[in-house]
Specification:
CATH superfamily: Spore Coat Polysaccharide Biosynthesis Protein SpsA, Chain A
Strand content: 25-35%
Largest sheet: 10 strands, mixed
Radius of gyration: 17 Å
Structural class: alpha/beta
Number of domains: 1
Low-confidence stretches: none
Helix content: 10-25%
């Protein structure tokens, strides 16, 4: 059965204004190409179908990528009302085939080897990377044999500096949880917090990644461009 990826691409990118006044954040250009194009091109060869959860100015994404990209079929799912990452995955559920699937954000940069390792995992898995400001992210504690013990979203006093950076390999029993439930102060759902609950029900692997670049502000684009230039020369 074909392997699928769910890519969350519904955000407005408020912090990237004015670049996102006329386009969604995943369509902001790096080296002349939308961020989302790099994400799609880095997907493992095992991925045959991509479910794109879209919202803000979604027509820009649909016009650019169409129904197929690099041989991968694309399905579009609407999340016009921004209700969080858990809600976005719930919106994608009817289009999933029941097999393990890759989940990632549309607006960060990853290393293709990390995504391939996730896709090949025998257990559900999250990608983790050391960060100097772990309190800004979902902080992970990991057992000596590489299993995720705890995932706490933006703790005031982090237990370590390993953070969940977004890409996950999820199994279908994640939907046994109420993923759309409000988990954040603003009333939005939060998938990372739900994965922290999921840990009590089944083992989840923590896989250390080699690269992650978050794009949140206009000043981040210069660093992103350096990365894609390096990768194009295969020196990453």
């Amino acid at each position: 059965m074909l392997m699928q990826a769910v890519i969350l691409a519904a955000g407005e990118g408020m912090r990237l204004r004015p670049l996102t006044d006329d386009r969604p954040k995943p369509m902001v250009l790096i080296g002349g190409k939308p961020i989302l194009e790099y994400t799609l091109n880095m997907l493992p060869k095992e991925i045959e179908e991509v479910i794109l959860v879209v919202g803000y100015k979604q027509e820009k994404i649909k016009e650019y990528f169409g129904n197929e990209w690099s041989g991968k079929h694309i399905v579009y799912v609407d999340q016009s009302r921004q209700k969080g990452t858990g809600d976005a995955l719930v919106k994608a559920q009817p289009f999933l085939n029941g097999e393990p699937f890759l989940l990632l954000q549309a607006d960060d940069l990853y290393h293709p080897d990390d995504l391939s390792a996730l896709a090949a995992s025998d257990l559900p898995a999250v990608l983790v990377i050391e960060h100097e400001h772990p309190e800004r992210f979902g902080v992970c504690t990991v057992s000596p044999d590489g299993l995720l013990l705890e995932l706490i979203e933006k703790p005031a006093h982090p237990k370590g500096n390993l953070v969940n950076v977004g890409p996950n390999l999820l199994h279908h029993d994640i939907f046994d949880l109420d993923l759309g439930a409000p988990m954040l102060p603003n009333g939005e759902s939060n998938l990372a917090a739900q994965i922290g609950i999921w840990l009590s029900r089944r083992p989840v692997r923590a896989m250390k990644g080699r690269f992650w670049y978050a794009i949140g502000y206009p000043q981040d684009l210069e660093g992103a461009e350096r990365y894609v230039n390096l990768f194009s020369r295969k020196t990453v």
